[in-house]
Every structure is written in C-alpha cells, then in structure tokens.
Write a structure and sequence with these properties.
Elements: H1 2-5, E1 29-34, H2 35-47, E2 56-58, E3 64-69, E4 83-85, E5 112-115, H3 126-145
Antiparallel strand pairs: 1-3, 1-4, 2-3, 2-5
Helix pairs in contact: 2-3
C-alpha cells in the first residue's frame, strides 16, 4: 500500500460533528490488513446495528485493504496480522479516484477505493475496527478448519 501514501491529490473531508471520530482534511492514519480479513471486517462493520466503516482502499493487486482511521491511531495499534501507518498528524494525501473499468485479460488492477470517501463515515473508529478484525480472523480460522 505504499503507493497510496505517495499520491499528491487530496479530498476534502466533511465538516466534523459529534457523532464519532472525524478527521481534518487529508489527515488520517492507515490500517492495512490482508484482503480476505479486510473484506470480512467490512462486512461485519456494515452489518452492525450502527454501520461504522469509513473509506477503504485496496492495492492494485488486491492483496491488502487499507482502512482510514483517525490520526494518532498508529501510536497504540498492536493488532497482530495488520499494520498501522502513522502520519504524525500530517495525514496521507489520497486522490479522489474515478470509477475505473475492469482491466482486460491479465492486466493489473489500479489502486482504488473499495468504499470511497463520501459514501461512508469519515474514518473508521479504531476500537470498532480492532473488534471487527478479530471477529474476521476467527471466522476465517473456523472456515479454514472445516475441511
């Protein structure tokens, strides 16, 4: 996902309110996880009593997903099997990616949004994400053990 952090464009975050963690324009940390666990976590977060998932990006090979979380999350992130890239409050600058057509044949997919900004909460709450990732890991382990 390193290519994501090197983009120079940015999107403007919605104005903050008191409903949950919000971010300043362009300021967030990025939690990356293997795609299978990430997709399970997205489903868990979207099925909850209160859907609580922010923007999610995928890498071009669809090997990892990245969840935007509030800046400063990396300082306390300790979830095995994931990484949180901190930005010291500077934030990543991500492009507002257009809808891209599926590549032909074996061409690599470009990096893009799984859940784009504006269609979701501004960021994912780290405590809620940690719980969903743990549940996703348990579901995957159970499914893989049923051979």
């Amino acid at each position: 996902m390193s290519e994501i952090g090197s983009q120079s464009a940015t999107w403007n975050a919605p104005a903050p309110d008191a409903d949950g963690p919000k971010l300043a324009a362009g300021a967030w940390d990025l939690v990356t996880v293997p795609v299978r666990q990430g997709l399970e976590a997205v489903d868990i977060l979207r099925r909850g009593a209160t859907p609580a998932v922010g923007p999610v990006v995928h890498d071009g090979a669809c090997d990892t997903l990245g969840f935007l979380v509030p800046p400063g999350t990396a300082a306390a992130w300790d979830m095995p099997g994931s990484a949180c890239t901190g930005t010291s409050g500077r934030g990543f600058r991500l492009p507002e990616l257009p809808e891209l057509p599926e590549p032909a044949g074996d061409a690599p997919r470009p990096t893009g949004w799984l859940l784009p900004p504006g269609d979701t909460d501004p960021v994912t709450d780290p405590a809620v994400l940690r719980k969903a990732l743990g549940e996703a890991a348990r579901l995957i382990e159970a499914a893989d053990g049923c051979h």
